[in-house]
Amino acid sequence: MKYYIGIDLGGTNIAVGIVDENNRIVAKKSVPTNAPRAVEAYVDDMIKTTLELCESTNIALKDVEWIGVGSPGSVNPVSGTVERAHNLGITSAPVAKLIEEKTSVKCFIENDANAAAYGEFIAGAAKDATNAVCVTIGTGVGGGIIFNGKIYSGSNFCGAEMGHCVIEYNGLQCNCGRKGCLERYCSATALIDQTKAAMTEHSDSAMWDECGGNIDDVNGRTAFDAMKKGDKSAKEVVEGFIGYLACGCANFINIFQPDVLLIGGGISKEGETLLKPLRDIVQKEAFNGDAKNATKIVAASLGNDAGIIGAAMLGLLYN
User: Fold this and answer.
1) Are strands 141-147 and 150-151 parallel, antiparallel or unpaired?
2) What is the distance between the alpha carbons of residues 70 and 88, in angstroms, rounded to a whole number?
3) What CA–CA distance (Å, rounded) separates 203 from 197?
4) What are the CA-CA distances from residue 30 to residues 9, 25, 223, 304 (Å)?
5) With 0-12 CB in 10 A as exposed, 13-18 as middle and 19+ as buried, what is 158?
6) Rounded to whole angstroms, how far apart are CA atoms 190 and 104?
7) DSSP assignment of 127-158
8) Which residues is 18 bridged to in the sheet?
């Protein structure tokens, strides 16, 4: 049996997993990222956690085929460098080289959203596809593109920034500097803001009950849960959110025409409550929407494990 190490270097946690040749996670462990820190501190924690996993599973590090890392920010997989990761506080960091020097194991690195998309392609909801687009809805909106079985990130490794495609000209200000970005309308953060605005306008909304009367406890499920109980204002919030998301998804389909478009992140747990109306709108707006080979829109299936599995399998692309 062959084994690989997959590391998801997140803004909150560093998740490490041992993955076998069947793309199954044998064991995993996470530690706090404690960002921002020096790059050497992140590397030390990644290696320490890896060694602890190896010890607990009786898998020697020397028997690991390679180590893969998914990192936020702009990542150059050719040089093994994290070029810019603002939330980690690092710039031009030779992460792969540092790991190789301390472990004597080959290391590959990719953007974390790209790694997660590759995980879904290798072992998840896109495993039967040739071309796939993954839209991950979290604090922001991330994305990954699989083109002819490979990760597509553009000529400068900054591609697939799905969240920063404009869907409303001169719309809401985004942290990236643009206005009207998808992220400002379809992230979990945006959904929470939309829910709070509706609650403030409708004091009798069931959304208040869902958060125990405390508007600070609103989350991404609040409007969906209240809508399921028949609340009109919650229904308007959800429909608006899905409408914006459909606009973005139709754009991505019109550009890439993938076999499958995945919706990931916590919001994907809403299942058909989210996906059915999303498909209905996209079918009307996207080119080729009525064709038998139209893009399928489905929920991502691996959850937080996608980043670990995708990172662990990066050697298939770059070795």
Assistant:
1) antiparallel
2) 13
3) 11
4) 10, 13, 31, 11
5) middle
6) 44
7) TT-SSEEEEEESSSEEEEEEETTEE---TTS-
8) 5, 27
Q: Which residues contact 213 (CB under 8 A, 6 or more apart)?
A: none
Residue 282 main-chain phi, psi, to 5 deg: -60, -40
Coil vs helix vs strand at 6: strand
227 CA to centre of own chain:
26
* pTM score over 0.70: yes
Assess contact for 300 and 124: CB atoms under 8 A: yes
Phi, psi of 106 (to 5 degrees): -60, 140
Whole-angstrom distance, CA of residue 73 vs CA of residue 95: 13
- Average pLDDT in the 93-119 region? 96
Q: What's residue 73's pLDDT?
A: 87
Q: Is the pLDDT of residue 218 over 80?
A: yes
Radius of gyration of the chain (CA): 20
Cα gap 294→261, rounded to integer Å? 10
Give the residue with greater pLDDT, 280 vs 291: 280
The 8-class DSSP code of residue 11 comes to S
> How far apart are the C-alpha atoms of 128 and 142, rounded to whole Å?
22
Length of the chain: 319
* CA angle 228–231–237, rounded 5-degree value: 90
- Mention every residue, 6+ apart, whose C-beta is less than 8 A from residue 62: 104, 105
Q: Are strands 260-264 and 296-299 parallel, antiparallel or unpaired?
A: parallel
Res 289 pLDDT > 70:
no
pLDDT > 90: percent of the chain: 88
The residue type at 311: A
Split at pLDDT 50, 70, 90, the class of 140 is confident
pLDDT tens digits, 229-278: 999 999 999 999 999 999 999 999 999 999 999 999 889 999 999 999 99
